[in-house]
Amino acid sequence: MPTTLSERLSRELEGLRESGLLISPKVLETPNRAHTRIDGRDVLNLASNNYLGFADHPALKERAEAYLREWGAGAGAVRGIAGTLRIHEDFEQQLAEFKHTGSALVLHSGFTTNQGVLGALLQPDDLVISDELNHASIIDGLRLTKATKKIFKHADIADLERVLQENDSDGLKLVVTDGVFSMDGDIAPLDKIVEVARRYGAVTYVDDAHGSGVLGADGRGTVHHFGFEHADDVIQVGTLSKAWGGVGGYAAGHADLRQLLINRARPYLFSTAQPPAVVGALSAALEEVQRDPSLMERLWDNTRYFKAGIEALGFDHMGSQTPITPVVFGEAPAAFEASRRLLERGIFATGIGFPTVPLGKARIRNIVTAEHTRDDLDRALEAYSAVGKELGVI
User: Which residues are reported to carry the modification N6-(pyridoxal phosphate)lysine (predicted)?
Assistant: First the structure.
C-alpha cells in the first residue's frame, strides 16, 4: 500500500518530537524592535536580525507610505514583461553606487538570489568550491546546477588551495563563501580567499547576508571591509531584509552581471517585482545609514559589551566576531530549555539545534542591535547568568 499523506506527516512530526527538534515559532504581537510582545507579555528581543533598527524606523515607514500612494500596492507583473517600474531601476542604481560596484540587481529574497545567480552563472564544465558551513541557500542553489562541486574546510585557506590544486577546469572556477557565517558569527578571511582564488584563476562569490549593513564603511559589507568592492572578479550577493529592514535579495559586481541575470536568473524571470512600498523603504534605509553614523557605532558598542559579558560569565560564544553571538548549550533539548527559561525572565532568544547547526553544538543565537540600551544588555546578561547556573552550563 502506498504511504498516505496523513501517515507521512504524522511519522515525520513524531520523529521531530521524539528528537526534541520540533519547533513552533513565537508570534510577535508588536513590531519587531528591541522590545516586543509575545503571548501578551513585553520581552527584550535578542532573536531578530534587525541590526540597525530599520524594521520599524520612522524614515523607512514614511518613504514606504509615499511610494505606496504614488506607485500603488504592487508592481503588477514580472520584471521582464511589465513589472519594472522606474523606482526599481533607480534603487538598483542607488545600491550599485552604495556597494561601489559596476551594477546591481534586486531579486525577491536572499535565498532565491543564490538560486538565481548560481544558476545563471554556472555551466556543466565549471568548477565551484564551497565553504563547508555555507548557508543552506548556497547549498540548494548549487544542487540546481550541473557544475562540478567541491567543499573546503571552514575558513581553511590551506584546504581551499589544496582543492584548487587537485581540481581544474577549462570553464569558470568559482570560490563560494558566506561573508559572515550566520550561526557562528565569524567573518570569512576574504583577503586570503581572494588572494588564493586569483592565483588559480578563480572568481570569488560572497553571500553577505549578515555582513551587509554591519561591516565596512556605512555598512557596505564584508567585501568593502576587505577592500574588494571595485573588483570585477568578486561577486556580492545578499539579502535586503536583515540590516536593511525590508525584504528581497541583491547581486552586485561586474558591470555586465546585471544584464546576464536579467536574461538568465529564473527567480527574476518568473516572479512578480517587489511592491513599491518595499522599494521605498529600502531606498530610505541606504540613505539613513549614511546620514546617521551613530547607528553603526551603537551596533558595535553594544556588540562588544554583550560579548564581554557573555565571556565573563563563562559561556562559549565560539569566538564570534560580529553582532551574532552564539551561546552554546550542547544538545538541542538543553538549548530549547534555556530559551524557554530566558523567556520566563522576559528575554526572547531562540534555541537552534540540528540540522541548522551540528549535533552537539546546539545554541541560542543572540543578535544585539543598535536599538538596545546598556540597561537592556545588563538585564539579558543577568538572565543568562541565572539560566546558565540552573542548567549547569556555567
Answer: 242
Cβ contacts of 140 within 8 Å, gap of 6 or more: 111, 114, 115
* Marked catalytic residue, from 57, 99, 135, 210: 210
Q: Which comes out higher in pLDDT, residue 332 or 292?
A: 292
Grid cell of 16 as nine digits: 521531530
Choose, from 182, 241, 283, 320, the residue flagged as catalytic: 182
CATH topology of 21-50+293-390 equal to that of 59-291?
no
Radius of gyration of the chain (CA): 21
Long-range contacts of 31-35 (CB under 8 A, 24+ apart): 31/55, 31/56, 32/56, 33/371, 34/369, 34/371, 34/372, 34/373, 34/376, 35/376
Which numeric CATH code is attached to 21-50+293-390? Answer: 3.90.1150.10
The β-bridge relationship of strands 41-45 and 347-348 is parallel
Q: Where are the domains of the chain?
A: 21-50+293-390, 59-291
pLDDT tier at 342 (50, 70, 90 boundaries)? very high
Report the relative pairing of strands 351-352 and 362-367 from DSSP bridges: antiparallel
Per-residue pLDDT tens for 282-323?
Answer: 999 999 999 999 999 999 999 999 999 999 999 999 999 999
Cβ atoms of 71 and 86 closer than 8 Å? no
- Answer yes or no: 210 catalytic: yes
296 grid coordinates = 553603526
150 with 130: CB under 8 angstroms?
yes
Q: Which of the four pLDDT bands, split at 50, 70 and 90, describes residue 139?
A: very high
Catalytic (active site) residue 242: yes
Catalytic-residue membership of 35: no
pLDDT at residue 227 greater than cutoff 80? yes
- Average pLDDT estimate for 232-247: 97
From 108, 242, 307, 372, the catalytic residue:
242
Q: Is the domain covering 59-291 a CATH 3.40.640.10 domain?
A: yes
* pLDDT value, residue 354: 81
Average pLDDT, the chain: 96
Largest CA-CA distance found in the chain, in angstroms, rounded: 65
Strands 203-207 and 148-152: unpaired
- C-alpha grid cell for residue 110? 536572499
